[in-house]
Amino acid sequence: MVCLDSTVGAPVADPYRNDKRTIFGWAMYDWANSAYITIFGAVIGAFFTGTIMETDTYWGLSGESLFAILVGLGSIVLLLAMPVLGAVADYSDSKRRMLRNFAVLGAVSTLVIPFVPDGQVPLFLIIVVISQFGFVAANVFYDGFLPDITTDDTIDMVSSRGFALGYLGGGIYLAIALVLLMFSSEEPTTNSLTESLAARIAIFGSGLWWIGFSTITLARLPPDGRGGEKRSVSDYARIGFRRTMATTKRLREFPQLLLFVVAFIIYNSGVGTVIAVSGPYAEDTLNLSITDIGIAFLIVQLIAVAGAFMFGVISGRTGPKRAIMISLVVWIAIAAAAYFIPEESAVSFWALAAVVGFVLGGVQALSRSLYGTMIPEEASAEFFGFFSVFNKLSGVGPLVFGVVSAATDGRTAILSVGAFFVVGLVLLARVDVDKARASRADWDFTNA
Q1: Helix 255-284 and helix 320-339: axis angle, to 10°?
Q2: Does the residue 287 lie in any domain?
Q3: How far apart are CA 141 and CA 6, in angstroms?
Q4: How far apart are CA 286 and CA 281, in angstroms?
Q5: pLDDT, tens digit, 9 for 90 and up, residues 240-276
Q6: Which of 96, 176, 235, 384 can bridge 143 by disulfide, Cβ–Cβ 3.0-4.6 Å?
Q7: Helix (H, G, I), strand (E, B), or coil: what is residue 58?
Q8: What is the mean pLDDT of residues 125-152?
Q9: Mapped to the 3 state alphabet, what secondary structure does 133-150 carry?
């Protein structure tokens, strides 16, 4: 991106592009919100099935099935707002303000979760959905900054750096939370910390971590108002909706980008399902403790740091598409192995977690950066709004898991996750990345 020097009319480089300080500030948001997402996977789901659910079933469903179905339905509902928010951010040039507002919404609602009393299932689920909304909406604007601060030759490594820093930050916070959980006891005794109270403290702390470290990001990102216009909220919503609908229709004219989108929706449904239901699956089906589950997620976080960087290197040698395909083959093996883990075998669960950590960072970071090289730069927030929609459509995975679990059992449900990776792999193999990148020049936003 270039801008014009007002005194001489000559183009000057954007000072925020490939700037180390800006990139570090951007990546720190991954550090900030990863505390929440690790606690969501390691603690919140298991806390729901083991503490908030005071009976084996609620509304005729097990805790495992109910949590998975809620995550799936919530994701599908949330997707409706994401592309409009992205388009509004592009038009009004307010990505930083929107990132701040939704990060605060997500973090504050996370601070409320620990105060929900045992047995209050609907209230707990509502607050969790609000925290998820804040998390997802903020990520629309966070991701939208990526093309603004990088170039095609740096976007892969910067994206991987964000995920790696996120896994490191999430891992450090989870390690702190595990200390609390390890020194807690399932049954209350004199002067002891109960497992339930330790889980509540861990959830509360993740909200503080999120909102605290976000201030570093907000201080270093490019400011708002470098080309946007001030209009009413209704005007922005109308513009955003029209622009989003127009872009949706025109996606059909760009078959390679559309094919990647479909492939991503499908294989990311598998990834999202593993992240969302691992905790409830381990607690409900494998009969593991919250501490055992927390250790598994810590293993994932620590290994994912190296995995994100390693897949960045692999991408540099093979290209991002092939690197993602390698990771999907491993994901298929993970889904199959999860079916055979014996009950109460924490060691087996930890071993599988190590493999998950290796491929998790790679598939997420490279999918985001590959997508970023195929979209028009002048509408990055809008298109990353679509990227968030794709993530929320991936909520179909947890929904399918919940339905299959309710109809059969958790093991059959976890085995069904492998189908998402198989179909996604087949479709991704057919994407022509070069054609998709070349098509960026054909987008026209003069009437947006």
Answers
A1: 30
A2: yes
A3: 29
A4: 7
A5: 777 767 767 777 777 888 899 889 888 988 888 887 7
A6: 384
A7: strand
A8: 84
A9: HHHHHHHHHHHHCHHHHC
* 253-292 per-residue burial string, b: 16 or more CB within 10 A, e: under 16: ebebbebbbbbbbbbbbbbbbbbbbbbbbbbbbbebbbbb
Q: Total structural domains in the chain?
A: 1
For residue range 12-60, what is the model confidence (pLDDT) as tens digits?
Answer: 457 778 888 888 999 899 999 989 988 988 888 888 888 888 777 777 7
Split at pLDDT 50, 70, 90, the class of 209 is very high
Selection from 233, 253, 346, 342 nearest residue 293 by Cα: 346
Question: CA separation (Å) from 158 to 23, 63, 172, 313, 366?
Answer: 7, 39, 21, 12, 10
Q: Smallest Cα–Cα separation from 386: which of 162, 15, 79?
A: 79
Establish if 448 belongs to a structural domain. no
- What's the rounded Cα separation, in Å, for the pair 259 and 360? 22
Domain residue limits at 92: 18-442
Q: How far apart are CA 252 and CA 364, in angstroms?
A: 25
Q: Which residues, 6+ apart, have CB-to-CB distance to 139 below 8 Å?
A: 33, 388, 391
CATH number at residue 378: 1.20.1250.20
Domain assignment present for 7: no
Q: 51: which 2 tokens?
A: 């503490």
β-bridge mates for residue 193, sequence order: 184
What are the structure tokens assigned to 221, written together? 């990102």
Integer Cα distance of 106 and 108 in angstroms: 6
Q: Which helix (H) or strand (E) holds 4?
A: strand 2-4
Structure tokens, 222: 């490019």
